[in-house]
Design goal:
The chain is of the alpha+beta class. It has a seven-stranded mixed β-sheet.
Length: about 750
């Protein structure tokens, strides 16, 4: 390891802002934990595999002697463009030629821990550690557990500075190596379009000095590029994954092929605490190509020479499961959510001012809302391929939590974690479903049983039945209006399970879905009302959460609690504007004096869309939201004919800070808009007897091209740090459409999906 890399490792291990006395005095009951961690020094070094001719500069970059730049990316590519965005940051600071950039998935290492996502996700569990102490403790936990996570739009905000620093450090080292050859000061050298130059006629290719560059030392202060010409950041560069996806060479999970591989399909019973009771293997044997049925306590899998045969054999085997407890149903979900309001476990999680004295004997505006669970419906059902031998276990799968997936596979097989090699694959969309990884565990168990490589692919039916959808929620909203229509008080009571807590218990603690749902229902948490913190300046407001287990395990989804939080908030704001007799945009603007970035988004969307003031018959609706450091507003034009909803135009104005690649930024917002539109129109099912009543995509009233008109995304120029864009479009669409439909029907749409099932 070169001196430069040793110095980088030492710098990474420093914990700034804490000394022994601070920890003892400030941490209270958690001081012992913090002191213990502070006393365990850690120096993490890159663990990259380096091929012949390659040189590893740091955990994020390798350079081949031919000039190939290999950028290491720990985040899962789920269609959001992260395998282009992070390399673009590094290549820009390095001065590389974009045509020489390649991408490689990262191995498991603490250097790739997503501490930003960990802070968002685990802050409720670590609430006894407040402020900087709590953040530091979570960072330490995530780092030492090598908690690699993809989600919540955190990839670019989390790793932006790390990739910029990696590119800057490599540029300095390469310039030092070239300067030593030319006997000139290294500060006079720079890299432009992949060539090192001293400002004169001398040129060197990056690969020519890569091997010797790592032996130089970095300066105390790392200089960044000052030149503005030929910068890659902020440019619309072609995505690196596009060519292979066009020519078909891009491997997804179901594309993996191994020698002697066989195929498997699986059944896991109805939703809840279900155990396998009987199965008819004799019937399965009648299928040509069938090999074996493998039974576990809670599932049965058929293996065959091809997947069709495996799935057919499973159908004929007619597995029967025994379900403990009451089967999940839509009526039961609604009753559980309403019953939660009368329970004793509710807790006030946000509060400002004094609502009690304000609301006593006051005339209030009140409404109730409901949101059904929304399915993921990713293009690819759950899939994994495994090969198990005495020496090693290999698993190919798409996962948003590779470290935890590897640990779960190892634990299921009873081997050390380092015996498992997990090859992370790209996914054609996930929307959060790949945060769970049960297919990888199942494939590994099947491969061990068969002593052959096994590819397990869930059927679409199985994928829908076993989905962990977005959390269902009910809300009771109340507000007091004052003079001029100003909101003097606001109270939101939300009954909902916490999908994030359930997901963490499943993937980190190995709990079964019904166990995680039951345990999460004991505690109120801000994770369950994450979209309810008001962006408006109100003097008195509060949000109460009532935890509940409705019998349907919930999961991590795009937008998570913001999906229903924004719907409740923005729909009710629109109602209040109507009651107050104030035009809907002006009504919002008067409360956004302390939020100029959101106010600008709102006025921009309204101007671009030709906002008519929400007059009757206009079919126009507005909504605003803030999440993950992104401010956004949307205006839609919608209409309804009978039971058919159509959306003519969608205009979104988004302030997400500096954007690495504006085209990908727009793609992310547009994708979120379509996801939110699906939630508004039908990406959910009703449940009865422990099963969904629909499982075919064509019967779910999902949006089609004919249902969606023009979508315009305006990115507002900003010098703020980049925010996470992947989620912001999803929560905005449903309330904007609901508000638009009010102008053409005179009725409020207070439930999702917006239209009742026929």
């Amino acid at each position: 390891m070169g001196r430069a890399k040793r110095k980088q490792a030492d710098q990474r291990d420093k914990v700034k802002g804490f000394d022994r006395r601070t920890l003892l005095v400030g941490a209270g009951a958690a001081a012992g934990l913090l002191l213990a961690w502070s006393a365990w020094p850690r120096a993490y070094r890159p663990n990259l595999n380096v091929a012949a001719g390659e040189t590893a500069f740091n955990a994020f970059l390798k350079i081949d002697k031919s000039g190939q730049i290999v950028v290491i990316v720990p985040q899962a590519e789920l269609g959001q463009g992260v395998t282009t965005l992070l390399p673009q940051i590094l290549a820009d600071e390095l001065g590389a030629d974009w045509r020489t950039i390649g991408v490689q998935s990262a191995p498991v290492s603490p250097l790739y821990a997503n501490t930003l996502f960990a802070r968002q996700w685990l802050s409720s569990d670590w609430s006894r550690l407040v402020g900087d102490a709590g953040d530091w403790a979570i960072d330490q936990y995530a780092t030492r557990k090598a908690l690699i996570l993809t989600g919540a739009g955190t990839s670019v905000p989390m790793f932006h500075d790390a990739y910029r620093d990696a590119g800057a450090a490599a540029r300095v080292l390469l310039c030092q190596a070239a300067a030593a050859r030319w006997d000139v000061p290294w500060e006079s050298c720079d890299i432009e379009n992949g060539l090192i130059t001293d400002g004169g006629d001398r040129r060197l290719k990056i690969g020519e000095v890569a091997a010797e560059a790592v032996d130089f030392d970095l300066p105390e202060i790392l200089p960044y590029r000052q030149a503005q010409a030929d910068r890659l950041a902020g440019q619309v560069l072609p995505r690196l994954d596009t060519p292979s996806k066009i020519d078909g060479s891009h491997n997804f999970a179901a594309d993996i092929r191994l020698p002697d591989m066989i195929f498997a399909s699986i059944r896991q019973g109805p939703i809840g605490d279900a155990k396998l009771k009987t199965v008819n293997e004799d019937a399965a044997r009648r299928v040509t190509g069938f090999l074996k049925l493998v039974r576990q306590e809670r599932w049965v899998a058929a293996l065959a020479s091809n997947w069709w045969a495996a799935n057919k054999a499973l159908d004929l085997s007619d597995p029967v499961f025994e379900l403990a407890g009451v089967p999940v149903s839509s009526d039961g979900i609604d009753k559980a959510l309403e019953g939660a309001f009368s329970g004793s476990s509710g807790q006030r999680l946000y509060a400002r001012g004094d609502l009690k004295s304000l609301f006593d004997n006051a005339s209030l505006v009140a409404s109730e809302f409901s949101v059904a669970p929304g399915l993921h419906l990713a293009l690819e059902p759950m899939c994994a391929t495994a090969r198990v031998s005495d020496a090693a276990i290999e698993v190919w799968m798409a996962t948003q939590a590779p470290t935890l997936a590897r640990a779960a596979i190892a634990d299921a097989l009873g081997v050390a974690h380092d015996m498992v090699t997990l090859y992370p694959l790209h996914a054609g969309g996930s929307f959060g479903r790949k945060m769970d990884f049960e297919a990888g565990v199942q494939a590994a168990l099947l491969a061990r049983d068969m002593r052959r490589p096994v590819q397990l692919l869930w059927s679409r039916l199985e994928d829908v039945v076993q989905d962990r959808p977005s959390a269902p929620a009910h809300a009771r909203m109340a507000a007091k209006l004052g003079r001029g229509g100003a909101i003097e008080g606001w109270l939101a009571k939300v009954a909902a399970p916490c999908a994030m807590s359930q997901t963490w218990d499943r993937i980190a603690h190995g709990k079964l879905p019904h166990e995680a749902a039951r345990d999460a229902a004991a505690t109120s948490t801000r994770l369950a009302v994450a979209g309810m913190e008001l962006p408006y300046a109100l003097p008195n407001w509060a949000v109460d959460h009532y935890p509940v287990d409705p019998g349907l395990p919930a999961g991590f989804v795009r937008g998570s609690a913001h999906l229903y939080g924004a719907f409740f908030t923005e729909s009710f704001v629109d109602e209040l504007a109507h009651v107050a007799g104030v035009e809907a945009m002006s009504f919002r603007i008067q409360m956004l004096g302390g939020n100029p970035r959101l106010a600008r988004c709102l006025t921009t969307a309204g101007t671009m869309g030709g906002w008519q003031g929400g007059i009757d018959g206009s079919g126009q609706g507005l909504a605003v939201h803030v999440m993950n450091g992104v401010y956004a507003a949307i205006m839609v034009e919608a209409s309804i004919a009978g039971d058919k909803l159509s959306v003519g135009r969608i205009i979104a104005a988004v302030d997400a800070g500096e954007q690495v690649n504006p085209d990908i930024a727009r793609q992310q917002v547009e994708s979120g808009i379509i996801y939110g539109l699906a939630l508004a129109m039908g990406a959910s099912v009703s449940y009865a007897n422990g099963l969904p009543e629909r499982a075919i995509l064509g019967r779910m009233d999902l949006p089609r091209l004919a249902d969606v008109g023009e979508i315009t995304v305006e990115l507002i120029r900003s010098t703020a740090p980049p925010g996470g864009l992947t989620d912001i479009g999803a929560p905005l669409v449903a309330p904007a459409i609901a508000n638009a439909l009010f102008t053409v029907t005179g009725q409020r749409f207070r439930q999702l999906p917006l239209l009742p099932r026929t």
